[in-house]
Amino acid sequence: MTPQRRSGYGLLALAAFLTVVAVLTDAAGRLLAVPAALAALVLALREFDPRPLLVADPGSITVRDGWRRVSVPWDRVERMRVVRDRRAALLELDLGVTVVVLSRNRLGRWPEDVLTDLLAVRDLSR
Known about the structure:
Layout: H1 3-24, H2 27-47, E1 54-56, E2 60-65, E3 68-73, E4 79-84, E5 89-94, E6 99-103, H3 104-107, H4 111-124
Antiparallel strand pairs: 1-2, 2-3, 4-5, 5-6
């Protein structure tokens, strides 16, 4: 099972738990639990989205950022790098119009490997 699917199932379980909490609590509890359950459900659905997160070809790079897709030609990509946090490595893509930060969980691979592949594809365009 991929990390995305695992987190998707976890978010679905959280949404189900919050739905039970909303049914069993008073009005104030429902006011907190219902929006949280809806947010968890939306995030879970995003994790099960089968479309690719990152697509690169010699002409451009396309990133799915939330519900929107950002497609930018390689000459407009300002920077691609791996940023190391205290706990994780993150792939940072500065696409000129937006900055996208992707974790290993979202990518399904190590960010260093993805960066190496992106640089190879970008070099094909030159």
